[in-house]
Write a structure and sequence with these properties.
By secondary structure, the protein is mainly α. The protein has helices spanning 3-19, 25-32, 36-42, 46-56, 60-70, 76-82.
Length: 93
């Protein structure tokens, strides 16, 4: 499995985790501007999966809860995000 495929799998896990949290899913939906139909239609797109991880990475408590629920290291979502489109590190020097 490639690095991007592994990252996509983790992002799908994150999306599933978000969907299981009634208080957090509406926050994600509101911030993304997607309807439930859009969410279902775009769930396999690498760019969209990157946005799922971007959202998760906004709050340390969400990262900890997601990683604990999936037996992952706490840096795993950040590393996965780097492997998806738009996740490259920017260096301004």
């Amino acid at each position: 499995m490639s690095r991007q495929e592994s990252a996509e799998t983790m992002a799908l896990q994150a999306l599933t985790w978000l969907a299981g949290h009634e208080e957090l899913l509406p926050v994600f939906m509101g911030s993304s501007g997607l309807s439930p139909e859009d969410l279902a239609a775009r769930a396999a797109e690498p760019e969209f999966l990157g946005s799922v991880l971007d959202f998760l990475l906004m709050d340390d408590a969400w990262i900890i809860a997601f990683c604990d629920a999936n037996s992952l290291r706490y840096d795993a979502p950040m590393l996965a995000r780097a492997a998806l489109p738009g996740g490259e590190s920017l260096h301004w020097t």
